[in-house]
Amino acid sequence: MGNDPLGMLAVMDEAAVFVRAGNGPVIVEARTYRLEAHTNADDATRYRDQADVERWVERDPVVRLEKYLRANSLLDDAAFESLTDEAEAAAAALREAASAVRTTDPLELFAHVFAQPTPQLREQRAQLEAELACRRR
To answer: Which residue from 70, 17, 136, 75 is spatially nearest to 9, judged by alpha carbons?
Structure first.
């Protein structure tokens, strides 16, 4: 289901109607398959069968959505090229921003984990705080 954009849209629309009707929260399990390795240093052939990967390539959600849009005359070559250029520019901007050197307080890692920090989180924060204090001496 997670690799089917239109299927996901239908499920999410249904979940939104359910929640907005006051029925409480909903969990949507969206199973998907990661086509690429975890990182460029990862050798996925160590733990994945190539035949399995090839079966999932045939279900690539981006390719499936493109085929659907083209088949329904909702996407042509010019629009596809424009969208591709826009996506590449956005990706380049994100890579640049992610690569920018920023000074961050390591203790900020704990700031937004829970609305109310758990005892374990407070303990971990204190441990890091003590370690950082030792390094500064």
So the answer is: 17
Q: For residues 16 and 28, what is the distance between their CA atoms, to the nearest angstrom?
A: 11
Q: Minimal CA–CA distance to 62: which of 35, 89, 23?
A: 35
Kindly report the number of other CB atoms within 10 A of residue 95's CB atom: 10
- pLDDT band (50, 70, 90) for residue 67: very high
Distance between CA 13 and CA 90 in Å, rounded?
A: 27
pLDDT digits (tens, 9 = 90+) for 3-12: 888 889 999 9
DSSP helix/strand/coil, 77: helix
Quote the pTM value: 0.56
